[in-house]
Amino acid sequence: MLMGMIENIYETMNIRVQETAFELHLRKIYPTRNILSFRETETISGQMGLDVQKKTDGSVNIIGEVATDPVAAWMIQAAQVASKFTLFTHHAKTFPNLVMSLRNSLLKTGMFNNEKTAEEQVVGVLNFNIHLVKDFRGRRYIERVTECIPVEDKNEYTFDHRKEKTLEGKIDKFMDNATQYFTKVTNKELYKYVNIMEYVDGTYVITNKISDYNLREMRANMDDTDAEDFNRFIEKHWGKEALKATMLYDEEEVKSQSKATANSELIKKRGRKPRVNN
């Protein structure tokens, strides 16, 4: 499936591939595409190859199969910098198992010492998981498409103790904040996951809506024709309100950017005029 997905990536996007062994052979399948493949050797480590790859102006990073702990660390690095998005394969059975496996790999490589911090890094780069299944008849199909939604850490502490007149009331308010703090520390929820599409009784069914953030990011990276088709898709499955919500956000973002540009031009006008040498 990873080989077939390349056909749907815009040809203007440069593709960079990092593998422990050459398996994809994308340059042979797509000879007209800008594809550069790397693999580690006895003298050049995979990390060194990844460092060079970051400097080659790639738009899409592909990390073959994440089967070892160091490769998982490569994937996190590639997804965080130097590309628009990253593709990789993994053999986790469920989405929580995928997050747990990648988190444990980061801990084993020594990149992080804290489980929560490592898990935050993993959740921050996982957007969608396409889970394939091969049944006993030998059929291979997509069982589900899952979206990962990071949970924002909100400040829910209060200063109501200042309004209390008695010592008992102040202590009660303090204990409420203390309970909130220890709940965040000991049982912090870092992400939620929902199935966007599922394979049910021989057909694919849209089960949940994609988050507004990912809808906006997806549309921002499409050309005009695909963006129009995507808008029709959103309206068909999730209604006009979902489409309107994402469009309103885009308009507000454009207004804020134009306002920032106008302010910068105003600052330039207030500055000293450049000196002209005769």
Enumerate the spans where pLDDT stays under 50 for 5 or more consecutive residues: none
How many strand elements?
A: 8
Beta-strand residue percentage: 15-25%
Straight-line distance between termini: 66 Å
Give the H and E element order: HEHEHEHEHHEEHEEHH
The helicity comes to 40-55%
Overview of the molecule:
- By secondary structure, this protein is α/β, with parallel strands linked by helices.
- Among the domains are: 154-187, no CATH class; 210-269, no CATH class.
- It has 9 helices and 8 strands.
- It has helices at 2-5, 26-29, 46-53, 69-80, 95-108, 115-125, 167-186, 212-220, 224-270; strands at residues 15-19, 35-39, 60-65, 85-89, 128-134, 140-150, 191-200, 203-206.
- The strands form 2 sheets. A 4-stranded parallel beta sheet has the order 2-1-3-4, covered by helices on one side. A 4-stranded antiparallel beta sheet has the order 5-6-7-8.
- A hairpin with a 5-residue loop joins strand 5 and strand 6.
- Helix 4 packs across helix 5 (95-108), helix 5 (95-108) packs across helix 6 and helix 8 packs across helix 9.
- The longest helix has 47 residues, at 224-270.
- 17% of the residues are buried.
- The mean pLDDT is 83.
Task: Write a compact overview of the structure shown.
The protein is an alpha/beta fold.
Q: Which helices and strands occur, and which strands form pairs?
A:
Elements: H1 2-5, E1 15-19, H2 26-29, E2 35-39, H3 46-53, E3 60-65, H4 69-80, E4 85-89, H5 95-108, H6 115-125, E5 128-134, E6 140-150, H7 167-186, E7 191-200, E8 203-206, H8 212-220, H9 224-270
Parallel strand pairs: 1-2, 1-3, 3-4
Antiparallel strand pairs: 5-6, 6-7, 7-8
